[in-house]
Amino acid sequence: MSNNFVLPIGPIHPALDEPLHFRFQVEGETIKDVEILSGHAHRGMERIAMKNTIAQNVVLCERTCGLCSNTHSMTYCMVMENAGNIEIPERAQYIRVVADELKRLASHAFAVAILSHLIGFDTVFLHAFQEREKLMDLIEAYSGNRMDMSVNIVGGVKRDISDELAQHMDKTLEEFRPVWDNIAKIYETDGSIICRTKGVGTISKETAIEYGIVGPPARGSGIAQDVRKQQPYAAYDRMNFNVIAENGGDVYARTWVRIREFIESINITQQALREMPKGPINLGLLPKIPAGEAIARSEAPRGELFYYTRTNGTEYPTMLKWRVPSLVNIPSWVPALRGAQVADIPAIIASHDPCISCTER
Amino acid sequence: MYPDLKKEISRIMGHECEIIEDKNGNFWYHLEDNAKMKDIAAFIASYPGRCMTISPTYDENKSMEIVYHFDFYEGTMFCVEVKVPEKKMESITPILRSANWPERELTETWEMTFEGLESIRWERFLITQGVEKGVVYASLSETLNTNASDILWDRIKAYREQEEKGGDSNE
Q: What's the whole-model pTM score?
């Protein structure tokens, strides 16, 4: 009897958090090849965006994704500000950094927790999720919402951070350091985590460049690319932080990048809170966007997020297109999964922290 | 080191070319000869760079254009605008693999044809088979349409009518 068979998984499967269909060519327990099919939840958001006004699209874009929601609305506002040649107030630039980093912290904590759960290490899962809940409280304290912060508008932000709240955030973030150091120590030294993650689902630097992957998966493969440094936006050019990169290219490296970036994000947020200048937070009423064409990109928790627009001087955009990090990261799963064991499929996929909600806008 | 785009594009085109820099430092080039796109892709791949995405758009005459967005892992972005009135281009995926999903996405959502793009098992990869090509972006209710009927509601109405008439509706 042949050991070769086809193993279909998804789009609905207990080990998959999101709807994707895989067709694995398997020899025994080893994956020989895989085909990936998405398209189970396409929402046609780009079509809707062209029927919405420029102001309405801030709300729409924020709903592309839950974890990266703030980065979507911010990058959309950035592309419109680029099209309109609009300079936002300095305080708004700092507040955008704070909001963006809070969401990144929550997202990275989520990704690390989920990976731990999938490899059966639920102690770290519970620990990371418990800490994430405190971050969600900070997000709620600032914006009133847990997921969609809804603070960005074209021309700045609509909600200020009081001195009292800034001090509370600063203090709470400081308390995260020892806790997160502890999670990092467990992840770095625990034998059961290492044996399930090291050397698993490896993507070499050359392959990462070939597929054009972005974000923590790219940095886990040794590509020190981070939009916050490469093409700074908001107040990132005034922030002192390191771009984290690892050379392993495996599940371990991708997750380790997120764990280390957590500490960098705490540093960035605290800097922004402490150095934030006084002043206005927006330009008042929605500025008029003239006819033109613009692009903008930012570093979402999952990687580079890109927006393109063409405007015609009316309140409706001629074109709005956005490209999310997961869309370029998913094709690279094919080389990552080839040669891996069937049991490692969930860990390899989770280590890329995919978002099908983003991919199928 | 960031490439000298004016020099490289002029070399590919065989004459001096104008590269426009926007206020954010991104570079733009308007490509007249669509056949040269593969040579530009080869230059991007050799650097090495990547195709970030491909944006569809319309010019003032409602004729279709696409914009290739490239990145060199440093500095700003490089955008190449191409007019595609026939909605047809040669695929650059064989040269620059990072263009694979962006090309497939445009194939489905804008009915673009990328000649030489390898076919896949399911034909579609982003939009469900039930939605006509090129009319997408379809709405969520269309892509996720499930067969619904009024049977349950009709029965409730029938019971209510029966009740109003004084009959027994306790079924």
A: 0.85
